[in-house]
Write a structure and sequence with these properties.
It is a single chain. The protein is of the alpha+beta class. Helix content is about 35%, strand content about 25%. The chain contains seven helices and twelve strands. It has helices spanning about 20-30, 110-120, 125-150, 150-165, 185-190, 195-205, 220-230, and strands at about 30-35, 40-45, 50-60, 60-65, 70-80, 85, 100, 105-110, 170, 175, 210-215, 215-220. α2 (about 110-120) crosses α3, α4 (about 150-165) packs across α7 (about 220-230) and α5 packs across α6. It is globular. The model is unreliable at about 5-15 (pLDDT under 50).
């Protein structure tokens, strides 16, 4: 099971607040209502009406997709400061993912109808909100690139870079990742088997690219990972979980 990450001293990603101005961020918060989800609670299922957005005040939420064979793939992890949900031009659209709380999560819930009023009333807010939608779309595109372009080793190396950008903290000899993931969980994030991840992980350790200390992954050679996945050096708000 994914374990709660240690809170970095200097967070790498500031979520929606990195896109909205302070004034527009306050406008967005003004239409939220608070809701708490206990660990394991589902915020929405695949097929539920896509009529809300969720702002993570504290906690961790996993976005998953289930295949016809019943396997669940982890597509995103959302943490403090992140806004997520499905917004598209179709009024009766439904969610294509399932969102599950991985720890006790406090969220601000935004009704679609309230958001639409805000977008109509404030043009500057609408422009910044479209920028956020573009950022989320780019994140999804780059993850599909990871899945399809450079094999499972490239996908795993890209995942490790994303983990470092989101949860990494410098330490002697490398970059320590605060979020603990086992091989099965990493496999669910790149569309591989646990055995495949274990094999590639072992090779990365032998090559001196990574290490494991007290259950935490330590990145020792970032250039090795970047060369393997043909890193495009995207900004950290794109290259993240």
């Amino acid at each position: 099971m994914i374990q709660a990450a240690e809170k970095p001293a200097n967070p790498k990603v500031s979520g929606i607040a990195s896109v909205l101005s302070p004034d527009n961020f306050d406008k967005l918060k003004s239409i939220m209502y608070d809701k708490t989800f206990e660990k394991g609670a589902v915020l929405f299922w695949e097929g539920d009406p896509a009529d809300k957005l969720f702002f993570v005040r504290s906690g961790l939420v996993r976005l998953t997709k289930t295949t016809e064979g019943g396997r669940s793939f982890t597509f995103h992890l959302f943490r403090d400061g992140d806004l997520f949900g499905q917004i598209d031009p179709f009024k009766d659209s439904t969610h294509i993912f399932t969102a599950e709380a991985m720890e006790r999560t406090h969220a601000g819930v935004i009704q679609r109808k309230d958001l639409e009023v805000l977008l109509w009333q404030h043009g500057d807010f609408a422009i910044e909100f479209v920028q956020w939608m573009g950022m989320m779309n780019r994140m999804t595109q780059m993850k599909f690139r990871d899945f399809l372009t450079f094999g499972k080793q490239g996908a795993l190396c890209s995942l490790l870079i994303r983990l470092a950008n989101t949860y990494g903290e410098p330490e002697e000899g490398g970059l320590r990742i605060g979020l603990r993931l086992n091989h099965a969980e990493m496999a669910d994030m790149i569309g591989a088997t646990r055995e495949c991840v274990s094999r590639i992980f072992g090779q990365l350790k032998r090559d001196g690219a990574i290490d494991v200390k007290n259950g935490h992954i330590v990145i020792k050679n970032m250039n090795y990972l970047r060369n393997t996945c043909r890193c495009e050096f995207c900004p950290n708000d794109i290259c993240r979980l």
